[in-house]
């Protein structure tokens, strides 16, 4: 049956590959999904048609928006959902011996050909309560899908949102480097974080792209390597993610490289060809040393430092010999201002003598605002004193336990950082551990169902619904509205009442200038319904950028952002409250 489904997708131009992580199998679910599946089967209820909504209840990180990610992996799981004999044997082992053989025959034949999946496009900006996915299908299989689908959406969306938030604070012009692999929650945490930070954290304006093209042309003319595109990417240090997803990689070097050097005598091959290949410097170490001497004699630099650390200088020189076209040095191993910066500048100017342009420095400790400003002053003084055009703009990367708050603090203090390396706080989503996605039954055999709770925000919204985003006159999204499946869709220019799902007094009329239906078919099962393509990661990222840019600024700000309105139609409102009263037992006072 699975073969049939995949063949159908083949016809529409694309085979759905298996999940990226081979651990994503039909067994990646909670035991209770199998026990419920057995009980459904035993009661001959397993084929009853269920509708589940996957959604979250609250935006993460104290914000008012979320980036939806993980859909492609959900569809990959669904398209390839099939138990192996080995897996069936294992399920037989873990279930009580009283479970009948027929259930295992049922599992053997199970796939997602009777399941339909409707979803919001991956990379969309999304809001609480509005279904991200709607799963329709036989109840037993839909339940088995609950855990893996929630798992695949939860972290992906959380970390994409975290990346978008870090980008928002850093500003469009800053380069962000994701350094988190060593701190991520295991290998999948690391790979997923890299992929979804790329999805959510990119920012580029057309002006920046044009500038990049111009700077690339300039670089070619000057025979300089294209080492530093200036448009703002999220770059990654995670090599496996680079290979898997084609996302851009970048990195610097560590303290170990610096401290592994004891003296310049360790450098054996000291020769370096000029950038244009026309000449060769036989002793680059001496060239570097002459620059250190010039600095020591310079009026404007004298007094900032005395003797720099020679083992650090040896490490920088050696790194420059290895990477003359992309030299970037970590300058805080011994003393940033008294050693790291002058040593870097000496190597950078020696490279400049040979036609190379150093990329810059990385600061990994201390007061990053202060040190970046001091480093910039030093670069500018060097530019002026030695007439090296552009040297004052040498790149400054900062790292060390950065997060939204520290980026914000740096902005407030004033700094000269051009790019940030961010690890732990970004990839582990330190500020919030989980998005809290849920998967709730909203209909069975065409009968709407509701889950009640003391906490009103936890009451589920029943029915197989449709959802729409309504745009206002200024082009911003105004409100998301959910309607019953059979209600007519909202129309451009037609006034519609949008009601808070649970608060009677909160309601507003909206005359939409644009209406966008949110849920599209991504997995039609064996039905003939047309389905959406799964776009490449780059397209998903582009959608994300566009959507983030289109949001009203007050929804996006960090401090007290305005909540985006999520509503239901008047008819759905009435129905929710009818069902609520119907299902809630009336209390008795004694
Ligand atoms: N100007 C600044 N304003 C606010 N926070 C900053 C500023 N500069 C650095 N930080 C943050 O302050 C923290 C400093 O960390 P910590 O106290 O461990 O010192 P450190 O610089 O790492 O020292 P060392 O590596 O020498 O032990 C980091 O989280 C860093 O991101
Ligand atoms: O955002 P972060 O979690 O700080 O991730 C980046 C850090 O990781 C690396 O060093 P590491 O922390 O391994 O060693 P260090 O703290 O001794 O520099 C790097 O030098 C950064 O400091
Ligand atoms: O490339 C780097 O500088 C890097 C990579 C991972 C972690 N810290 C730094
Ligand atoms: Mg650290």
UniProtKB/TrEMBL annotation:
Pathway as given in its UniProt record: Cofactor biosynthesis; NAD(+) biosynthesis; nicotinate D-ribonucleotide from nicotinate: step 1/1
Single GO biological process annotation from the record: NAD+ biosynthetic process via the salvage pathway
Substrates-to-products reaction catalysed: 5-phospho-alpha-D-ribose 1-diphosphate + nicotinate + ATP + H2O = nicotinate beta-D-ribonucleotide + ADP + phosphate + diphosphate
Keywords: Ligase, Phosphoprotein, Pyridine nucleotide biosynthesis
One Pfam short name: NAPRTase_N
Keyword match Ribosomal protein: no
Key word Chloroplast present: no
InterPro entries tied to this protein: Aldolase_TIM (IPR013785), NAPRTase_C (IPR041619), NAPRTase_N (IPR040727), Nic_PRibTrfase-Fam (IPR007229), Nicotinate_pribotase-like_C (IPR036068)
GO-annotated cellular components: cytosol
Domain of life: Eukaryota
Domain Nicotinate phosphoribosyltransferase N-terminal: 27-154
Coiled coil: none
Known EC number: 6.3.4.21
GO-annotated molecular function: nicotinate phosphoribosyltransferase activity
Residues of the Nicotinate phosphoribosyltransferase C-terminal domain: 464-575
UniProt cross-references to SUPFAM superfamilies, sorted A to Z: Nicotinate/Quinolinate PRTase C-terminal domain-like (SSF51690), Nicotinate/Quinolinate PRTase N-terminal domain-like (SSF54675)
Protein family membership: Belongs to the NAPRTase family.
Protein name listed in UniProt: nicotinate phosphoribosyltransferase
Source organism per UniProt: Salix brachista
């Amino acid at each position: 049956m699975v073969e049939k489904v995949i063949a159908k997708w083949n016809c529409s131009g694309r085979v759905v590959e298996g999940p990226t992580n081979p651990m994503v199998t039909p067994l990646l679910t909670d035991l209770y999904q199998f026990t419920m599946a057995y009980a459904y089967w035993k009661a001959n209820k397993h084929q009853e048609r269920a509708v589940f909504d996957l959604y979250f209840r609250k935006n993460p990180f104290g914000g008012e928006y979320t980036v939806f990610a993980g859909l492609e992996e959900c569809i990959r799981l669904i398209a390839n959902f099939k138990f192996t004999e080995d897996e069936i044997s294992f399920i037989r082992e873990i279930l009580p011996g009283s479970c009948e053989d027929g259930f295992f025959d049922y599992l053997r034949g199970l796939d997602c050909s009777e399941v339909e999946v409707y979803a919001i496009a991956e990379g969309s900006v999304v809001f609480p309560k509005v279904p991200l996915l709607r799963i329709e299908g036989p109840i037993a299989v839909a339940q088995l899908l609950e855990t893996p689908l929630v798992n695949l959406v939860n972290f992906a969306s959380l970390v994409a949102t975290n990346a978008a938030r870090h980008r928002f604070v850093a500003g469009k012009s800053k380069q962000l480097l994701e350094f988190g692999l060593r701190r991520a929650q295991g290998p999948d945490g690391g790979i997923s974080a890299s992929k979804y930070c790329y999805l959510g954290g990119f920012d580029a304006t057309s002006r920046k792209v044009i500038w990049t093209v111009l700077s690339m042309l300039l670089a070619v003319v000057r025979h300089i390597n294209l080492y530093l595109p200036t448009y703002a990417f999220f770059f990654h240090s995670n090599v496996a993610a680079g290979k898997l997803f084609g996302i851009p990689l970048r990195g610097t070097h560590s303290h170990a490289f610096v401290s592994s050097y004891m003296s310049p005598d360790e450098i054996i091959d000291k020769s370096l060809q000029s950038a244009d290949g026309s000449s060769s410097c036989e002793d680059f170490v001496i060239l570097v040393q002459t620059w250190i001497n010039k600095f020591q004699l310079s009026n404007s630099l004298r007094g900032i430092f005395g003797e720099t650390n020679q083992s650090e200088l040896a490490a920088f020189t050696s790194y420059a010999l290895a990477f003359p076209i992309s030299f970037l040095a970590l300058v805080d191993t011994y003393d940033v201002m008294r050693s790291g910066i002058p040593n870097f500048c000496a190597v950078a100017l020696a490279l400049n003598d040979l036609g190379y342009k150093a990329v810059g420095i990385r600061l990994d400790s201390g007061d990053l605002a202060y040190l970046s400003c001091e480093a910039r002053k030093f670069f500018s003084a060097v530019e002026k004193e030695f007439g090296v055009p552009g040297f004052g703009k040498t790149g400054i990367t900062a790292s060390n336990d950065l997060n939204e708050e520290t980026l914000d603090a740096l902005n407030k203090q004033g700094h000269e950082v051009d790019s940030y390396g961010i690890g732990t706080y970004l990839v582990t989503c330190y500020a919030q551990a989980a998005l809290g996605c849920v998967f709730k039954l909203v209909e069975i055999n065409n009968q709407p169902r509701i889950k009640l709770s003391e906490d009103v925000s936890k009451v589920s919204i029943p029915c197989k619904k449709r959802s729409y985003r309504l745009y206002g006159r200024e082009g911003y999204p105004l409100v998301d509205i959910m309607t019953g499946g059979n209600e007519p869709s909202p129309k451009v220019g037609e006034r519609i009442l949008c009601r808070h799902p649970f608060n009677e007094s909160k309601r507003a009329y909206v005359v939409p200038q644009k209406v966008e239906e949110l849920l599209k078919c991504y997995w039609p099962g064996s039905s003939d319904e047309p389905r959406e393509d799964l776009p490449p990661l780059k397209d998903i990222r582009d959608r994300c950028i566009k959507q983030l840019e289109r949001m009203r600024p007050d929804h996006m700000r960090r401090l007290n952002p305005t909540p985006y309105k999520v509503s239901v139609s008047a008819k759905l409102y009435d129905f929710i409250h009818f069902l609520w009263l119907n299902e809630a037992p009336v209390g008795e006072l004694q």
